[in-house]
Amino acid sequence: MKLIETELPGCVVVEPKVFGDARGFFYEHWNAQRFAEAGLDFRVVQSNVSGSARGVLRGLHYQWPNPQAKFVSVLQGEVWDVAVDIRRGSPSFGQWTAVTLSADNRRHFFIPEGFAHGFVVLSDFAVFQYLCSAPYDAAADAGLRWNDAQLAIDWPVAEPLLSDKDARAPFLAEVAEGRLPVHAA
Questions:
Q1: In contact, 99 and 6? CB cutoff 8 Å
Q2: Which among 108, 130, 136, 183 is annotated as catalytic?
Q3: Do the beta carbons of residue 162 and residue 59 sit within 8 Å?
Q4: Does some domain include residue 183?
Q5: Which residue in the list 29, 61, 108, 183 is annotated as catalytic?
Q6: How many Å apart are CA 16 and CA 30, to the nearest integer?
Q7: What pTM was estimated for this model as a whole?
Q8: Which domain holds residue 124?
Q9: What pLDDT does 140 receive?
Q10: What's the domain count of the chain?
């Protein structure tokens, strides 16, 4: 497995070692011991799968309190995946990074607690898997507007398909201080 650091500390792209032949392929999607040895000590407590059509944008989502770290991957299709540092006091507060995840490149993306997450589908259809460090908590569920000018995310889709919730999400400047995580220095 190869770990690729991104511009945001803690957000890591994971390229698994893939074994393939004429029959197909095999790779280890998750191995708690190997990942902990590589510095990704992450306890999986919930696994989610979503399917979305081309142009669907899901996000930017986070939980606070009761944050979730996420280990995400694409089982079918292709997405452009984004993480945004929303930890108050972080040197990279409000900054984002993105990676293309696809069934073909078999990359995974680790997003630590304290980051908002979202993706947009680039293929006709995509099946997206989320491994989460904490269960979904409706009371802690939160989000940011996908097109917040303060974040200036360069989305590859100009007019995405959004849920009502995501279309009405607040801008970062509108979020109450107590509804954002704090950077642990």
A1: yes
A2: 130
A3: no
A4: no
A5: 61
A6: 9
A7: 0.95
A8: 2-18+27-172
A9: 97
A10: 1
In the prediction, which pLDDT does 40 show? 86
Q: Report yes or no on 178 lying in a domain.
A: no
For 179, other C-beta atoms within 10 Å of its C-beta total 14
Burial class (CB in 10 A: 0-12, 13-18, 19+), 11: buried
CA distance 114 to 33: 23
DSSP string, 6-40: -SSTT-EEEE---EEETTEEE--S--HHHHHHTT-
Read off the tokens for 99.
Answer: 């990676």
Cα three-residue angle 80-2-184, rounded to 5 degrees: 75
Task: Identify the burial level of 57 via C-beta atoms within 10 angstroms of its C-beta, where 0-12 means exposed, 13-18 middle and 19 or more buried.
Answer: buried
Domain of 105, CATH number, reads 2.60.120.10
Find residue 70's DSSP bridge partners: 111, 132
Provide the token pair at 66: 């009761």
Domain annotation covers residue 45? yes
pLDDT of residue 185: 72
- Please indicate whether residue 130 is annotated as part of the active site: yes
Instruction: Tell me if residue 27 is catalytic.
Output: no
Alpha helices in the chain (DSSP H): 32-37, 164-167
Distance CA 149, CA 88 (A): 18
41 touches 27 (CB < 8 A)? no
Block mean pLDDT (10 aa), the chain, length 185: 94 95 92 89 94 98 96 98 97 98 97 97 98 96 98 97 98 96 89
